[in-house]
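Q: Here's a chain of 131 amino acids. Please give me its 3D structure as tokens.
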Amino acid sequence: MILVSSLMTNSFLLLAVNLLHYLTICTLTIFNKKMSNLTSVTEISITPIRPRDGLTAFASFVLDDKYFVAGVAIFTKLSGGFRLVFPTRKIGQTNLNLFNPIKREVGEIIERKVSEELTKLYDRQLTEYKT
């Protein structure tokens, strides 16, 4: 009886360990897939201009190490912060979008990264001006 009980306990422990191992692998796989879907915005370049009607600068950047996006207008928001306007081409009476994020999250990531870079640029210019 003790031998049977011991074998059942060992089998149960082995099953529990295998199940835990399987769940850990599944969790890591899901996590890695989510991480690989994150959008990267790199090589951000900002060209300030003389402010006019809220337009303060133009930006270019590399998206997901695949696409170079240029001509993105940066406007100031009345509530603070910045708003991006992506480039269009006017053909006749029609404006055609050259680039525009489809997913809201991607647009927010781009806006946050460009805003951070613009804030750094303005902070550097302010520091240089004070010295």
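Q: Can you summarize the key feature?
A: The longest helix spans residues 2-36.
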